């Protein structure tokens, strides 16, 4: 009880609007980074299973570089060097943050796609080709749908990891949850309230995502039967 007496709730209440904006920024950053990372990661994953060296090696090198370097360093390079060099000036933390999260997430998603595709028996591709499908048609209609079921858990874990990694955008002044907490802590010179509340918000977000992933896993399970639920009810 002494801790709750010590905890100054009014600090959080006074900055509730700023925290709401930070929460929204975190959600948008994560969603954009993940969607872009899924699309780009799929292309990289297909590149890593390609037999053409001109496609395989660039994809392989990209994945190794982005998985082997810290996201923090990548964000700083993108924000302070890459984007200003391309556009002549900084395009703001939104652009740098989303681009950085996309490029980083794509590398991890690429490995998930590669492993998922390679986990499907080679006979599936041979059977599809024998039916007259091209390689791309067989990949799209036969291999990827089967692999997707196996990829849902690791893709879900990557989403959760990206959600927490979005806090690193604070180093480029991204106004997400952690940045707001730093502002509040600096204003009051108190650290329990802002950072514990930030941890609480991340916990709520990750819990919600975990439940959503579990629901999706259940729905795509080949043994899932919604009628059984109705019968029990």
UniProtKB/TrEMBL annotation:
Transmembrane intervals: 23-44, 65-87, 93-110, 159-180, 195-216
Membrane listed as a keyword: yes
Domain (ABC transmembrane type-1): residue spans on this chain: 23-213
Coiled coil residues, start to end: none
Subcellular location as annotated: Cell membrane
Membrane topology term: Multi-pass membrane protein
Gene3D superfamilies xrefs: MetI-like
The entry's keywords: Amino-acid transport, Cell membrane, Membrane, Transmembrane, Transmembrane helix, Transport
Pfam family, one: BPD_transp_1
The keyword Cytoplasm is annotated on this UniProt entry: no
Similarity section: Belongs to the binding-protein-dependent transport system permease family. HisMQ subfamily.
PANTHER family: GLUTAMINE TRANSPORT SYSTEM PERMEASE PROTEIN GLNP (PTHR30614:SF20), MEMBRANE COMPONENT OF AMINO ACID ABC TRANSPORTER (PTHR30614)
Name listed for the protein in its UniProt record: Amino acid ABC transporter permease
Species of the source: Solibacillus faecavium
């Amino acid at each position: 009880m002494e801790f709750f007496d010590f905890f100054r709730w009014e600090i959080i209440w006074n900055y509730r609007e700023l925290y709401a904006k930070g929460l929204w920024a975190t959600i948008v950053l994560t969603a954009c980074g993940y969607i872009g990372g899924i699309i780009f990661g799929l292309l990289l994953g297909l590149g890593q299973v390609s037999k053409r060296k001109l496609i395989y090696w660039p994809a392989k090198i990209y994945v190794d570089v982005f998985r082997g370097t810290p996201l923090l360093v990548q964000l700083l390079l993108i924000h302070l060097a890459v984007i200003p060099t391309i556009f002549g000036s900084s395009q703001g933390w939104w652009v740098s943050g989303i681009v950085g999260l996309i490029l980083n997430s794509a590398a991890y998603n690429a490995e998930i796609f590669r492993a998922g595709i390679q986990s499907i028996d080679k006979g599936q591709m041979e059977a599809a080709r024998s039916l007259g499908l091209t390689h791309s048609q067989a990949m799209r209609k036969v291999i990827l749908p089967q692999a997707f079921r196996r990829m849902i858990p690791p893709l879900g874990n990557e989403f959760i990891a990206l959600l927490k990694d979005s806090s690193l955008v604070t180093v480029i002044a991204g106004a997400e949850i952690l940045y707001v907490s730093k502002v509040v802590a600096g204003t009051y010179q108190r650290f329990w309230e802002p950072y514990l509340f930030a941890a609480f918000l991340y916990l709520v977000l990750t819990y919600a995502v975990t439940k959503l992933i579990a629901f999706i896993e259940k729905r795509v399970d080949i043994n899932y039967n919604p009628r059984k639920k109705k019968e029990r009810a």
